[in-house]
């Protein structure tokens, strides 16, 4: 089970989710989990945002598939159903948000963000709380509100106390993550290890540190991350 802020390869992500993840939106994979892949890189196809100092993600719905004889999907409204009437991923997420509005438990969504080709970061588990459509460049797009959650993860139960640490309840903004990853050259700043990396706050949240500036974020390997956590406690 990944910790929020953990940096992983594409293959590790797929192994964890027991799926070959190709699409951005994955409502209830065969594992039962709902998974979203986001990217805030310059060439990203969708406009996803991290708001509210890292407590909320606004995720854009997905376009109709490209098809011969059809206009550019970027010019067409995003759809909740396919031409044959089944729900698209937008429709599945929208229905879950509506059921939550009517009193059901919110759908829990595991969110991964692409840092660069083949390299991802686990942003954490979020609650899907709202869905709406809005105009965007002459068409309508879906938007989904995902709010950070401290819900302990099902098959785990071990490190709930650790997880509920404030440190893990905010997402580091994408620009900061990308800057830090490049600045630290994809290595632990203490030992140079290149695997099991985490984004670490130099001065923790609990002590007034911020995740909004790259100066307060660094890469640490799992060993040094744990050693630091032990020192702070
Ligand atoms: Zn290290």
> How many domain units?
2
**Mean of pLDDT:** 88
Largest sheet: 8 strands, mixed
- How much helix, percentage-wise, in residues? 10-25%
Q: What is the N-to-C succession of helices and strands?
A: EHEEEEHEEEHHEEH
- What is the H level of CATH, i.e. the homologous superfamily of the largest domain? SRA-YDG
How many β-strands, per DSSP? 10
Give the structural class: alpha+beta
CATH fold descriptor of the largest domain: PUA domain-like
Hetero compounds: zinc ion
CATH architecture of the largest domain: Roll
What does the overall shape look like?
Answer: globular
- Strand composition percent: 25-35%
Name the poorly predicted regions: 151-166
Note the gap between the termini.
Answer: 22 Å
Q: Determine and state the CATH class of the largest domain.
A: Mainly Beta
- Helix count, per DSSP? 5
Describe the structure.
The protein has five helices and ten strands. The protein folds into two domains: 7-168, PUA domain-like; 172-233, no CATH class. Strand 6 (107-116) and strand 7 form a beta hairpin. Mean pLDDT is 88; it is low at 151-166. The chain starts with 6 loop residues before the first strand and ends with a helix. Helices cover 20% and strands 28% of the residues. Bound molecules: zinc ion (ZN). Zinc ion is lined by residues 188, 190-191, 193, 220-221, 223-224. Zinc ion binds next to strand 10 and helix 5.
């Amino acid at each position: 089970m990944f910790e929020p802020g953990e940096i992983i390869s594409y293959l590790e992500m797929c192994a964890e989710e027991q799926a070959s993840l190709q699409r951005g939106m994955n409502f209830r994979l065969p594992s039962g989990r709902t998974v979203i892949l986001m990217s805030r890189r310059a060439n990203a196809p969708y406009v996803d945002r991290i708001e509210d100092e890292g407590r909320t993600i606004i995720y854009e719905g997905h376009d109709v598939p490209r098809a011969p004889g059809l206009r550019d999907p970027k010019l067409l409204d995003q759809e909740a159903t396919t031409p044959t009437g089944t729900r698209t991923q937008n429709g599945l997420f929208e229905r879950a948000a509506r059921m939550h509005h009517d009193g059901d438990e919110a759908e829990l969504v595991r969110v991964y963000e692409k840092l660069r080709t083949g390299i991802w970061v686990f942003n954490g588990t979020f609650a899907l709380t709202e869905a709406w459509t809005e105009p965007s460049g002459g068409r309508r797009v879906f938007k989904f509100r995902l709010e950070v959650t401290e819900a302990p993860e099902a098959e785990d139960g071990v490190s709930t106390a650790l997880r509920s640490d404030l440190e893990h309840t905010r997402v580091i903004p994408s620009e900061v993550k990308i800057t830090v990853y490049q600045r630290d050259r994809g290595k632990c700043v203490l030992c140079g290890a290149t695997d099991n990396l985490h984004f670490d706050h130099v001065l923790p949240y609990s002590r007034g540190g911020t995740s909004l500036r790259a100066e307060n974020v660094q890469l640490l390997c799992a060993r040094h991350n744990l050693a630091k956590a032990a020192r702070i406690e």
